[in-house]
Design a protein that fits this description.
This protein is mainly alpha-helical and 62 residues long. The protein has a domain at 21-62. Helices cover 71% and strands 0% of the residues. It is globular. The chain crosses the membrane at residues 20-41. Keywords: Membrane, Transmembrane, Transmembrane helix. This is CbtB-domain containing protein. It comes from Natronorubrum halalkaliphilum. Pfam families: CbtB.
């Protein structure tokens, strides 16, 4: 059972233990792609779409 106060680093450690290196690298690449789009494509519509996608994927961002 996971603690209710998970941190980003604890989630990364859990992912490293449960995923293969290829799966982990793919997830990291996907996260980097999201960050790139949000930083360099400051279009509000794109930002809102990515924000909603993160919430739909279960990623808490605020």
């Amino acid at each position: 059972m996971r603690a209710t106060n998970d941190t980003v680093s604890s989630r990364i450690e859990i992912a490293r233990a449960e995923l293969t290196p290829i799966q982990f690298a793919t997830g990291l690449l996907f996260a980097a792609a999201i960050a790139f789009v949000l930083v360099f494509l400051q279009e509000p519509l794109a930002h809102d779409a990515m924000h909603n996608f993160r919430h739909a994927a279960g990623i808490t961002c605020h």
